[in-house]
């Protein structure tokens, strides 16, 4: 069948229109995500600076607002150095795997009612699966760099993800039981019908486990042992420079936004606000859902910054102990309590 014959078939215009709408959504979501990555680094340096009684970036533009653009230009024009003994094809591929896996997770996040790139029934499982794929990029980077620091950092990351992925998955089981669905849009709508307007209250144990496990999953402080500057220089990406270093950096911040979005969607009511608030302040119903979603997301990202500025890095044995001896038993207890309540009600 030729392209012309396909276009003349009934319904082909709707297919083309749907494909165009999906491509437009992808462009919007990726562009907004990359803008947030650039300025998430700026606000992290500002927030931590003020917490440490200093100003943070101030030199480039008013209050340092153009610092992310200066950093991007520096990384773009910086020399791309590759170790002589590196496995070059794998070395090139590793940051692309990490960034692609992080960006793919954005496809199933419902940013507001009716705006999601792929509204699939297994959205929650999709994010957990794709976030695990990103770890392959880290492991391959550590192995291909031909450096003991990179290799140790990648091994730490693999062990960390295995430990905390279990706890994170179990923390979300209670949410699935309450919503009766793995679809993220359905989970948000189930919270809107709930008296508290969010699952963070009845699923407080699961919420705690998820927040801690998400920090470990994204290698954020105090769980940043795969990077650990004072032990492993910079861990798995110590041999990377220029744009390849920037790809790993972008993947880490997009991963942080994905975990923040998942916390907002599964525990904080997504784009909705509780009914008991709108009954007192009815004009809030007219605020667009994307505003509530972004405000909640910014709060979770600020929480990551706050933790980084407050807590020291754990030792490796402490990291493993928290994952296996504390978080997994708490997540299992949360599932047991949720199941008993569901049966009793």
List the helices and strands and how they pair.
Blueprint: H1 3-8, H2 12-51, H3 67-77, H4 88-105, H5 123-144, H6 148-171, H7 173-179, H8 184-192, H9 204-217, H10 229-232, H11 242-267, H12 275-280, H13 289-310, H14 316-344
Helix pairs in contact: 2-3, 2-11, 2-13, 3-11, 4-5, 4-11, 5-6, 6-9, 6-14, 7-8, 7-14, 9-11, 9-14, 11-13
Report on this model:
This protein is mainly α and 345 residues long. The protein is built from 14 helices and no strands. Helix 7 (173-179) packs across helix 8 (184-192). The protein is globular.
Helix content: 55-70%
Distance between the termini: 58 Å
How would you characterize the largest beta sheet? none
Could you report the average pLDDT, rounded to the nearest whole number? 85
Shape: globular
Find the count of extended strands (DSSP E, 2+ residues): 0
CA radius of gyration: 22 Å
Low-pLDDT sequence parts = none
In short:
With 345 residues, the chain is mainly α.
Q: What descriptive keywords fit this protein?
A:
mainly alpha, 345 residues
